[in-house]
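> forwarded from #structure-qc
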C-alpha cells in the first residue's frame, strides 16, 4: 500500500470512529461530549507520542521552557483541542442538542463589541485554533449578532460536516472557494458592508498564499486577505481569546486592533495571537501541521524589517 493510500485509509477510519463515538456521546448531553472529547485527545496524544519529539523541542524553544514542561503543554493541548473538534462533530449529529452546547459558553467583556469603532459597518472577529470558536460565535449569534463563520472543509472530516455543524449552532457558514478566492473575498466584503460580523481563524500558515511573517519563532506565510479587507472597509478586527476551559468554554473579547496598512495590521494580529498563546500555551493546537512542519529561524537582527515579534 502506498503512503498516500495508507494516509487516506487512516483518515477514513479515524473520522468514521469519531463520528460514531460523537453520535453516541451526544445522547448523554454536554458533559458526556466534553468527557469523551478529552479522552479522544488523550488517546491521540499517546498514540503519536513517539513521533512528537521534535514538536516538544519546538515548543520548549518557542516558550523558553524545559522539555518536560513542553510535553505537559502538548498533552493538554491535545485534550482540549480534540475536545473542541469532537464537539463540532457532535453538533452535526441529530442526537445532539446544539442549544445545550452553546449555552455552556461564557463570553466576558462582550460590551466591547457594542462599543467598537465604526459601529454599524460590521466587524471581523479574530479567532484561533484555541478552544471551540464555533460555539463562541454561536453564543454571539444567540445574542443577536449576525455572525458568519469563514471556513474550509478539513480533509480529516467528511465534506459538508463542518458547514452543517455551523448551521446547527446558529451561524451562517461562509466556505472559502479554493478555486476562486476572489469570489469569497467579494462575499465577505458584502457581509461587512451590510453590517455583518465575520469570524475567522488566522493562526495557521498558508501553503502558497499570504505574507511571510515570523510567528512563534518560525517564518511562514500568514493569511493576508482579512487584514487587507479590514483596512479597505474600515471595520475593526476584534480578537476573542479563550480564558478558561474547565467548566465550559470561557472567552474574553479584547480591545480592537488598529493599523494604517494591511501589512501593519497583519503584524498587529500576529502579536495579539502570540500574546494569547504565551498566556495559555496549553490551550493552543501546537500539533496542527501548519506550525509544526516549519523550522525555527535565527532571531532577527536590529536592522531587520519589523515582524510580528
Amino acid at each position: 500500500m502506498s503512503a498516500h493510500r495508507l494516509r487516506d485509509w487512516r483518515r477514513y477510519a479515524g473520522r468514521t470512529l469519531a463520528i460514531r463515538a460523537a453520535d453516541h456521546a451526544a445522547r448523554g448531553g454536554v458533559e458526556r461530549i466534553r468527557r469523551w472529547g478529552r479522552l479522544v485527545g488523550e488517546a491521540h496524544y499517546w498514540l503519536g507520542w513517539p513521533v512528537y519529539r521534535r514538536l516538544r523541542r519546538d515548543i520548549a524553544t518557542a516558550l523558553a521552557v524545559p522539555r518536560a514542561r513542553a510535553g505537559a503543554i502538548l498533552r493538554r493541548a491535545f485534550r482540549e483541542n480534540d475536545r473542541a473538534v469532537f464537539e463540532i462533530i457532535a453538533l452535526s449529529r441529530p442526537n445532539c442538542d446544539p442549544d445545550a452546547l452553546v449555552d455552556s459558553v461564557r463570553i466576558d467583556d462582550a460590551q466591547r463589541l457594542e462599543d467598537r469603532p465604526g459601529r454599524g459597518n460590521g466587524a471581523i472577529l479574530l479567532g484561533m485554533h484555541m478552544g471551540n470558536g464555533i460555539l463562541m460565535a454561536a453564543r454571539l449569534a444567540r445574542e443577536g449578532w449576525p455572525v458568519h463563520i469563514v471556513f474550509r472543509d478539513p480533509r480529516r472530516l467528511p465534506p459538508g460536516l463542518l458547514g452543517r455543524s455551523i448551521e446547527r449552532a446558529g451561524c451562517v457558514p461562509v466556505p472559502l472557494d479554493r478555486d476562486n478566492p476572489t469570489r469569497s473575498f467579494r462575499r465577505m466584503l458584502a457581509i461587512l458592508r451590510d453590517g455583518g460580523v465575520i469570524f475567522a481563524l488566522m493562526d495557521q500558515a498558508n501553503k502558497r498564499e499570504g505574507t511571510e511573517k515570523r510567528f512563534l519563532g518560525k517564518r511562514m506565510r500568514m493569511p493576508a486577505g482579512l487584514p487587507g479587507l479590514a483596512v479597505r472597509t474600515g471595520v475593526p478586527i476584534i480578537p476573542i481569546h479563550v480564558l478558561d476551559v474547565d467548566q465550559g468554554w470561557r472567552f474574553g473579547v479584547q480591545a480592537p486592533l488598529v493599523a494604517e496598512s494591511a501589512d501593519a495590521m497583519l503584524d498587529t494580529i500576529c502579536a495579539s495571537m502570540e500574546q494569547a498563546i504565551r498566556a495559555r500555551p496549553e490551550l493552543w493546537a501546537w500539533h496542527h501541521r501548519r506550525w509544526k512542519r516549519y523550522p525555527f529561524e535565527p532571531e532577527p537582527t536590529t536592522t531587520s524589517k519589523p515582524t510580528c515579534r
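QC bot note: The first helix runs from residue 3 to 26. The radius of gyration is 19 Å.
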